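Hi everyone,

Forwarding the result from last night's run.
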Amino acid sequence: MWHRHSLWDFAMLAAAVGLPAGLGLGLLVALGRLDPLPAILTMAGVMALTAALILPRFRDLERISRFAADLSDRGDLPVPVPRHSRAAAELAQSIARLRRSWETQSGQLKSLALSHETVLDSLPDPLIMVDPGGVVRRANLAARLVLGRVLENQEVTQVFRDPLVLEAVEAVLAGAGGREVPYVVPVPVRRDFTLRVEPLPTATAEGAVAMLMLHDITTLVRMEQMRADFVANASHELRTPLSSLLGFIETLRGPAHDDAEARDRFLIIMQEQAQRMNRLIEDLLSLSRIELMEHTPPTGAVRLERVVSAVVGALEPQARAQGVTVETALPDDLPAVIGEREELAQVIQNLLANAIKYGVPAGASAGRVEITAGTLRRGPVAMPQATRADCVFVAVRDHGDGIPKEHLPRLTERFYRVDSARSRQLGGTGLGLAIVKHILNRHRAAMVVDSQVGGGTTFTVYLPRAASGQQLDDDPPGPSPRPARGNPAAA
């Protein structure tokens, strides 16, 4: 079907072709050599013959024009075969070849773009590209995981709130060379980065002219911090038992060399001091290992009631010696939690060991510790936002003397003790709750302490719930009996 503009083009073309004949006939009429009527009839015949000769070729060109226009929407159109114009046929073949070439190049460019996208997302370090206006045009997967939001089309001032970073980006966009600044991601667990801003040699297809690269130095920073903490705190904690050992050794080698009674008494004290140093070193090593992995959350699933049952069984002799009864009340349908079995066992063990040590009220000869668990639709504010919904809690409650309110905020500090003398007497290192805090930080979990002086203390741990059907890390290869629940474990 012809369009209006096609008819107009055809008429103009026919008129242009017949124009020389019309001018010649008009000249003959003007000179009196030809009457007007024969001239008009002759001109009409010329125009008709011209139209008849041009029309097939014009229709061929019209078909090629429509074919070229439709190629932008459909690439599978058959190539038209003009019958009246060899030039039109060659033009159609050229357009078809050009289309195939474009498709090939387009496929190669798409494949190259996907490859570049895959390479960027495979980089372990976060990378962000910004345009001259400071708008993020591209961000790889690591950047999205670290910064936790949709970054594309966001202004860099909305992504980074650090003045040093913004000043470096502004300077590079203004034409300065590369800049390097420190950057800290404070939540959910503090991570330290070195942020490098570099100009790109040419603008990318998205219009980016600079890139921001973040290199994770969290492990290096924490190792340095641990070294400083060890020098500041561990040396102080080790000095007392070490001085005692040196003093007893000097005494045994001198005045008490032949005193059997003093030797036996001193050896008992020396053994206690050596055990105290051994516990301190073990706790320091455990804390160091946990801190190095704190920024990497676990991905396994653990059945919490099995962990609690194993810990209660392991601490039963200690509880019996202290005159403490441990009672557990865990529901049969308690969901699995996301975590690492050994670390969660260490959390329960440290909390239960503290409850056994301090669960006997002053002046009493026996005490009681209760362990309960359940689920919540939403965890406490102390829990990270990403893991707060549908969590599992486990609470360890003792009925001891309680902890004064002013001490509660500092319980998880290293080497902090409410009663230093009693803690050392009971074998405490002051690191147990610090270890619990760092394990829970790695698990994106939280702990809440509730205590009343004279009414006992409750430590409640909130853990993210595992997905339904997730493979359990502690599942044995075959069927296993369910652990006993609900019966008090007399200790």
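The two ends are 97 Å apart (CA to CA).

Cheers,
N.
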